[in-house]
Each structure stands twice: as structure tokens, then as C-alpha cells.
């Protein structure tokens, strides 16, 4: 039994402690907003926040996050998270998604990035690129991702 | 995927296939009764909806069959009841006869129907239809998503569906108010009548559904369009920006197990020995089963409570593989063989007198190499199969629901009508989910069948790892082009002798009927035209033990590159501006090419402004899937890597149904085209084994590679053409032409090796 804090709720899961957070969320808890893309932390589709840090859940065993705060896309875009909400709204406004499969991870990456900036700071394209370089979008939505992140930052400023 | 020019040949091939299937069914005489059509449609519909237009589907269908209704002459694809549901509160749900995998069809076709329905767009949503006859492609006769055909093939269909539903709502209002229908009009989801009477569509839907379906309807004059042509946001934008959008991988049936399959390292191999002791000891593992693989060979499936135990157990399998009798492909050797083959006589796609090659003042001898490419959609392939007492249900993101249903039926010993394919939202595909052999559906059916034989009757989701995807074959074929061109000082081409070597995509598949004179047109599409060139084209299709498949924009992934870099090189050699040279070759014809190119040139500032030092312009234009796209790019080199700074597109796709969606597709296709050029973008084989396995060794373009984009659309009122693929082909040659301007040398092998 492993005790996890997910989106503010304490939960106990009965899976092998080596199971990655990704598969615990998806298969054991039925939370499918977090996506499987590569399994080797190379694409960013599985990004969650652990104590506020963007983390690749596909290579993070649950044994490593016991007692830590895990947040997923379902929670971050639901409304209470000011930055997550702003990113979600900017994503909709810019019609970013195409197939949409990587976007949970992109939004989690973007939200963690904007939270890491000093309040009021609007990142330039190069800063956004550097922050988002770990996320693959095979549909090629990068131009709109850039625009949406800058827009969310302006809305938060 | 499938070129527009082939749409005439394709229905015949599909018809042939269906006939073969029917004959096979006679032979097997499956005892289970087919689902009656009515229950099929009901099952395919949304549950729990209040009465509305859509819920009358089955009845309308039954009436039509019985000939008791005015809709008797309408085909299933023309029946609004299968496509439009209007709820009492006025919500309109449009069913889409395609796969949505990013291209925006779920929004675009809904928009087209809503236009003629005169719906309130803020109350429109959409859903995906399955393999029912109603959701067949109007031209292919089966549900298919590919060849950038969705909007082009279903534009009139969805307009008429919307117009029919609107006419029924008008008739219902006329009856209710006892007025002539001519006194009524509609506006954004309401019928308006004399004396200020108004009724929402929701209030009229039930009465409307009971009325005959009109066969003849008058469509709007395009100048009255309110929705078509307007930049419209995606209907799925919110769900896809909050983790709420479900994809095929998210399907969860009660009691469902997850399977992963260990596959032979060499295509077509089989296990000689299997030790599954350690695998079976993994907690959560339910079964380890040997299964036949689609395309030959055998694999070992591990079924478990979830992906992680299944994958862990697969890693623990000890398998001795037998590759005897299977060709062990080696990329280096293969290239040498292709090179030799290019010099051999072979079937000719075009004939021309090439004797002027020896006397021409200028000569280019060029060889181009394009590697195997994996599609690598972000959502790994998956397919969930549930075997029921009277048939099977399949949940998957597929481009070929109709073909897959037949393949699943063959695999499971069922009739096609006993298989229901629930088309799921897919996380990309780019051709990989449109497989003539239905490989990932057949694989999942084999797993479910073996599980049932072993006493495991649970629904099974067969899930691919990224490594399975990258190593799983079905690649864009490796191609070698060899060109010998003679031209004069004015750039007039006197002779062009061209050879093309590459596996046929359709050879040996249900689409083999497309091969004419030994030549697969999906390999040669995009060569020569639109330029008036005296080209002789010889084609070779070797057999190689590597499964191949169409990849976004198919033949044009390589032919556009060859054509557009060579045309540029002739222009540069003869000291002509590459844009002016192309325009001169187009002459007074090829209006759409000219307009697309001129728009891109004009908006990019090409020829009007100086670029910073170290940057160069590159231009290319290409038609694919009836759409012409021109790219004008600004590029430079940094540490031997191309840097694409800015890319400006001119797009001629006739009527722009949704400019926002077109912009997205053009940008996305360009990123995929850019990806082809970047270091590492190649699938190679050694000793028969694919050398790449994941995004680490098969990198794709990232945000750091993405340029600033500007996409411009040529205004037009002609019926819309394809948009999912045409943005891709001209991007790589435009970038290559910029590099040639910088270095004096055109890269002739992809990915670029610029040193």
C-alpha cells in the first residue's frame, strides 16, 4: 500500500511501489488526463507537478513521491489554480490543440514555467522555447503554444 | 494519403474487397445472427438523450427501407437522422463520418452542416460515427479518413444534410402554425413566422423527425454564409486543454485487461523458445500467450491488470527468436542495391526523348536518398476488443473503420456486420492509423481471440509502447531518385531522364488495383507536373522485408523535394530568380500555382527587403491533394544545423471553410516537413533489426526548431480541396533551397548532413 496525495486528496493505492505515477494515475485511479507518450521522459506528455515542480510521471515511481504533493492536469485547469486557469484559457483562446494528446503535458509544463517566473514577467520567445523544449507536439502546434504562453503571462501580469 | 486522382480507382478496389468478403462469408456461414440494423443504429447513438430528431434515426431508416416515405430514394449517407440530433433544449449534435486526429474535421464538418441548418453555433457539438453504412465516405463507399479528402468529399453531403434537416424543421413549424412554409425563415436555431411567431429548433425537433425527409433541397448562396469562411475555434478546444478529452487509449471497459506484445526483432520472425516463468510471476499478470502476427510471424502477448505489470512481465520474458527464412535488411546494402537498380531498365511512368542529354550545354546529375520514416503519433497505437455472444466490439482511433471491421471479422470468424467499430479520438496518426492490412486492429483481435481460447473472456486493450511504435514497421518507404538533366543557358530543359526506386505502398494490399503497368502511383505522384518538362521516368518497386505505409502527403514527401530543389538549381545555374523562373514555366496556365506562389512571395517580402547577413531566402511550391501550397522561408545555418527563422505560406485550397483550421494544418504540416530534414530523422536497419527505438534516437522537431509562421490563403469560392497534408511537401525543399543559396550546395539526402 502506498499513500499518495493527489490534487489535495490523500489516497492509498495497492500497486507495486515501482509503478510509475503515470500508470498509477491512469490504470489504478482512472485519471486519464495525464498521457503516455514515450515512457522515457523524452516527450513531456506525462507531465505532472510534484511539490509544484514539473515532473515526468512516466519515470517517477510512486515510492519516490510518497508524502509529496502531486497535481495533475484535471486539477490545475479546474479553476482554483490561478496560473493553471490562465494557461487553460489562453490555450482555448489560441486554439492551440490539434490532436490534443500532448497538450495536457504542455499545459502542465507551461504552468510550472509561468509559476517559476517573477510576478509580472512576460517571457520572450526564446525563454518560452527553452522552457518548453522538453515537450514534443507531433502535430506541430508550437507557434500557437508560444503565443498562448505569452498571452497567459500578460493576463497574469 | 491517397491522391485525388486515384479516387476513381479506389471505389472499384473497395467494391472488389467487399465482394470477396461477402463470398468468404457465404463459405464460413457464421451461425450467430447479424445485429438487425435498427438496434445497430440505436447502439451507435448517444444514450439517454431526450426525444429529438436524432432518436428517430432507426424509424426513418426503417421507413426508407419499406419505401413508405419520401426519403425512400435517399442513401444512408444522405439521411439527416443519422447525422443530426436536436435536443429539446436546442442543443445540436452532429455526427462526423471520419476520424478526428487533429485535422479539425470534427469542427469543420459540423460547421458545414450547421451553416445550412442555420443552427446557433454556440449550441453545436459533434461526435464521431462508427463503421455504419451511414458514415461511409461518399466517394470511397467505406469509412475512410485520408488523402486530405474529408472536407472535399463531404462538403456537399454535409450541406445537404443540414439543408434537409432545416427543411423538416420548417415544415414542422408550418404545420404547427397552419401557415405556408414560404412565410417562414430561420435564424440561428429558430424558425421565425408571421406575426412575430418564433420557435426554437428544440421545440420542433420531435415533430420534424416524424416528417418525410425531402430529397431535393436548395442550398444557400455562398454569399449568405454566416459560418463557413469565418475563423472558428475548435469544438474540442476546451476538452483538449483540460485533460477531459478521451482518446482511444483511455477506453475502459468493465474488467478490461491490458496486453502488450513481444514481437520478433526481424520482421516475420517467430519464437523458437519461450520461458515465461519470470513473466508469469509478475503480480497482476493474467496470461502469456503466443499469437500469430499480422503480416506473418508470431509474437508473445502478455495480459495483465494494467500496462505496467504487462510491460514489466514482457521485459521478463526469455524468448529465443527464429528469423530463419526472413530477409535481414541492412540499410547500407539496401542503398547500394537501389543504386544499381536505378540503372536498370524498368517500367516507364512517362516517356520522353532524352537523347539531348549528351549535347545539352548544361547538365545536372543528381541522386537523392530519402530514408524510412516512422509516423510516431503522440498517442501510441492501441485497440480495445470485446468479444460478445453475438459479435465483437472494437474501440480504436482508426482512419479505416470500414476496412478494419472487415479485417476484424476475418480474424474473429465473424461477419462484418457483427463487428462494431467505435471510432475514438486519436492522438495523431499521419497515415499510421489508415492501414490496408489493419495491422493494429488485427493484432488486438488476435490477442482477444487467444485470450478467449485460454479461458480469459475480459475485454482486452492491446497497447503499444513507443518502442513498439518506432520498431513496428509501416514506414514511409526508403526512396532513391536519380536524375540526369540537360538544359540550355536560358534554363530550357532539353531532356530529363529520371529513375525512382522504392517499395510500393499498395502492392500486395487491397489497394493493389491502383498499380498500373507495374507502377504504384503513390510513389510517383508529384513528379514532373506542373512543369512542362520532357521527362522520362523509370520506376522500380523492389520487395523488401520491411512493412511500408503512406505517411502524411505520401509520394509528395519525396517527389516535391526532388522537383523543387532541381528546378531551383536550374534557375540558379542559369542566373535566374527562382520565383521568376517558376512563373515563366507556369506560363499562362497553372493559375492556382501562380496565385499561391505570388501571395507567399508578396507577403514574405521576398525580393523587397534585405535579409540579415547569414540568412537566405528559399522558395518552393507544390500541389498535392488538389491544393497548392507555396513556402517562402528565411533560413540560416548554426553549427551545421539548419535554422528556419520565418516561413510564409501561400495556400490555394479553394473555399476556406475555416481559416483558423487551415492555418493550423499548414503550420503543423510544415513542422513535420521540417522534422524530415533534422539530424536523426531516419529509420535504419542492421541485420534485419530496426536501429531506432524512441524519441531519443528518432528525434522529431521541437519548439526550439519552430519558425515564426505567416499563413495566407488565396480567396476563392470554388468547392474546397484538401488541407491536412499539402502544407508538408514544399517546406523541406524551400529550406534546402535556402541552404543552397547559403552554401552553394543543395542537400540531396534527408535528413540533412551539413557537416
Automatic annotation (TrEMBL), chain A:
InterPro entries: 2Fe-2S-bd, 2Fe-2S-bd_dom_sf, 2Fe-2S_ferredoxin-like_sf, 2Fe-2S_ferredoxin-type, 2Fe2S_fd_BS, Beta-grasp_dom_sf, Diverse_Oxidoreductases. Transmembrane segments: none annotated. The lineage of its organism: Bacteria, Pseudomonadati, Pseudomonadota, Betaproteobacteria, Burkholderiales. CDD domains: fer2 (cd00207). Gene3D superfamilies: 3.10.20.30, [2Fe-2S]-binding domain. Residues 1-76 form the 2Fe-2S ferredoxin-type domain. The keyword Iron-sulfur applies. The keyword RNA-binding does not apply. Keywords: 2Fe-2S, Iron, Iron-sulfur, Metal-binding, Oxidoreductase. This is (2Fe-2S)-binding protein. It comes from the Bacteria. Pfam families: Fer2, Fer2_2.
TrEMBL record, chain B:
SMART domains: Ald_Xan_dh_C. Gene3D superfamilies: Aldehyde oxidase/xanthine dehydrogenase, a/b hammerhead (3.90.1170.50), Aldehyde oxidase/xanthine dehydrogenase, molybdopterin binding domain (3.30.365.10). It holds the Pfam family MoCoBD_1. InterPro entries: Ald_Oxase/Xan_DH_a/b (IPR000674), AldOxase/xan_DH_MoCoBD1 (IPR008274), AldOxase/xan_DH_MoCoBD2 (IPR046867), AldOxase/xan_DH_Mopterin-bd_sf (IPR037165), N-heterocyclic_Hydroxylase (IPR052516), OxRdtase_Mopterin-bd_su_IorB (IPR012368), TAT_signal (IPR006311). Residues 242-325 form the Aldehyde oxidase/xanthine dehydrogenase a/b hammerhead domain. This is Molybdopterin cofactor-binding domain-containing protein. It comes from Pseudaquabacterium rugosum.
